[in-house]
Each structure stands twice: as structure tokens, then as C-alpha cells.
UniProtKB/TrEMBL annotation:
Lineage: Bacteria, Pseudomonadati, Pseudomonadota, Alphaproteobacteria, Rhodobacterales
Species in which this protein is naturally found: Citreimonas salinaria
Name the UniProt record assigns to this protein: Cytochrome c, mono-and diheme variants
Domain of life, per lineage: Bacteria
Segments forming a coiled coil: none
Keywords: Heme, Iron, Metal-binding
Residue intervals of the Cytochrome c domain: 37-143, 182-288
Residues spanning the signal sequence: none
């Protein structure tokens, strides 16, 4: 009995800590709902964020139909991009802008479930309020699609979503990776937030979190074939103009052309203003050597 009385407070405390660590966060939507979204500006955010690259159907000719279904292999299983078209049942058409903000910034679905970080909400968490509502406004203009979501193929224990709450506490750092002067802030925003470039170009630890100490130093290809190249100055010797031109046309200074998933990144960035591509290039050239 005495042992039980000793262990009971410990058990209660442990339960409370576990609940706190695994409970989904909620977004303060008061400022967001007060803003008016601009769909024209939201289209640029849409392209910079690469929404269509993951959420259009595999081999689809129209990348504005965000029906989902593409599979993304990882060491934890295969994740399938969901339908994020404005369809009210199959997609996110019945969401509010607050629901959207919770998913994009915190990785929490409207019903309170943790989303897997295959969706780069740790990067999108740095998105400004105005860009978020502009993006939402643009997405309302896209065609609805009734394709049903395909469930992820993730085994135990990674199929227990409550554990993602602990992962977020440990690794969902929404602070900026690099301190930069004012003239590089736009490039940092495009690379570290909207473009989420570090998701591919930075190595990960055993739990799938980005190793920020090796920022942009290259990483194994999650598909298991080849390696994503480093963008640090010891590996990438292109000039600012070379990088900006590559992001516009897909052509390298050696007259090679872009391939793989990067082709879609170039397709997205080619639709942005030239000054944005220049800003990204300037940020990349300012990356510290390993």
C-alpha cells in the first residue's frame, strides 16, 4: 500500500507530461481571419511553396487539380499526398482559413490529429499571415476533385500519431536557420519557409528530423537512388546569375538540364518574379561552408 501511494503521484505526473507532449497545438486564428486574401498574390505563394508538385495526381497533365495520390517513400513507410482540392468531402473544401492555418503551420488536421512531417509544416510555419490567407484565397479558385485519399503505408510504432506530438516538441523548430543581413531576408524566406529547400538538401537524423548543423550539405535521396546535392560553397561553385538562370530555365552553366523532382521545382520558380529567383540565388551563395 505504501509503495502504491508513492507510485501514484509519479504515474499521474507521467500521464500529465505525456498528454502535454502529445496534445496537438491550436493556432490563434484571430489575426488571420481578420485579413483579406488576395488570390493573385496567393498564386505566387502557391508556386513558391510547391503545392502542386506533391499534390497533383501522378503523371497528371493539369497540375492545378490537387487530387493527391503521389507516393513518397521513406525509412518509415510510404506517405501518400492527400487531396487538397476545394472538394467539400474528398478535399479541403469544407475547411475554414483557421483550419488551413492549423494544418500548414502546426501540422494539425481540423479534427485535431497530428499530420506527418512528410508535409513540411515546420518550414511552412514561418509563412507570414498575409501569405497564408492569400494562398488560401487562391486555392479556392482551383477545380474540385472527388478522388478519395489513399491511406499512408506506415508500420508500428510510426502509425501512432500521438507520438508526433513529441517529435514536434523536439524537432519542429520554426526559427530561422541562418541569421542574415536585411538584403538576404527575402531569399531566406523563400528558401527556408515557402520553398522548404532544406527538406531535400539537408541530411536527417534517425527520427527523420533535419540536421540543422549540416544545413544544405546534401542528403541521401529518400527514394533510395542517388544523393541530393549539397548547395554549400564547397560543392556548388555557380555564380548568383548561374543559380538564378537555372531556377528560370533548368539549364546549368555546363549546358546540362534539370531532371527528377527538381524539374518541378524549376517549373514553379520559373513562374516567380526575376527578383525572387535572384534573392534565392543570393541566399544560396551566402551559405556557410561546412
Amino acid at each position: 500500500m505504501r509503495l502504491w501511494l508513492t507510485l501514484l503521484p509519479v504515474a499521474i505526473a507521467a500521464t500529465g507530461i505525456a498528454w502535454w507532449l502529445t496534445a496537438p497545438a491550436t493556432v490563434d486564428a484571430s489575426q488571420i481571419v481578420a485579413l483579406d486574401g488576395d488570390a493573385t498574390q496567393g498564386e505566387a505563394v502557391f508556386h513558391a511553396s510547391g503545392c502542386a508538385s506533391c499534390h497533383h495526381a501522378e503523371n497528371a497533365e493539369n497540375d492545378t487539380v490537387l487530387s493527391g495520390g503521389q507516393g513518397f517513400a521513406s525509412g518509415f513507410g510510404t506517405f501518400y499526398a492527400p487531396n487538397i482540392s476545394p472538394h467539400p468531402e474528398a478535399g479541403i473544401g469544407d475547411w475554414s482559413v483557421a483550419d488551413f492555418a492549423g494544418a500548414v503551420r502546426l501540422g494539425v488536421s481540423p479534427d485535431g490529429a497530428h499530420l506527418y512531417p512528410a508535409f513540411p509544416y515546420a518550414a511552412y510555419g514561418r509563412m507570414t499571415d498575409q501569405d497564408l490567407v492569400d494562398l488560401w484565397a487562391f486555392m479556392q479558385t482551383l477545380p474540385p476533385d472527388e478522388t478519395v485519399n489513399r491511406p499512408h503505408e506506415v508500420g508500428f510504432p510510426f502509425n501512432i500519431r500521438a507520438g508526433l506530438g513529441v517529435w514536434k516538441v523536439l524537432y519542429a523548430d520554426r526559427g530561422w536557420v541562418l541569421d542574415v543581413p536585411p538584403e538576404l531576408e527575402r531569399g531566406r524566406y523563400l528558401v527556408e519557409a515557402l520553398g522548404h529547400c532544406g527538406e531535400c538538401h539537408t541530411p536527417r537524423n534517425a527520427l527523420g528530423a533535419l540536421d540543422r548543423s549540416a544545413w544544405m550539405q546534401g542528403a541521401p535521396n529518400p527514394s533510395g537512388s542517388g544523393r541530393i546535392p549539397a548547395l554549400t560553397p564547397n560543392s556548388l561553385t555557380w555564380s548568383v546569375e548561374d543559380i538564378a538562370y537555372y531556377l528560370e530555365t533548368g539549364f546549368t552553366p555546363d549546358y546540362d538540364s534539370v531532371g527528377g523532382h527538381m524539374a518541378e521545382v524549376v517549373e514553379n520558380f520559373s513562374k516567380l518574379p526575376a527578383e525572387d529567383r535572384q534573392a534565392v540565388a543570393a541566399y544560396i551563395k551566402a551559405l556557410p561552408a561546412p
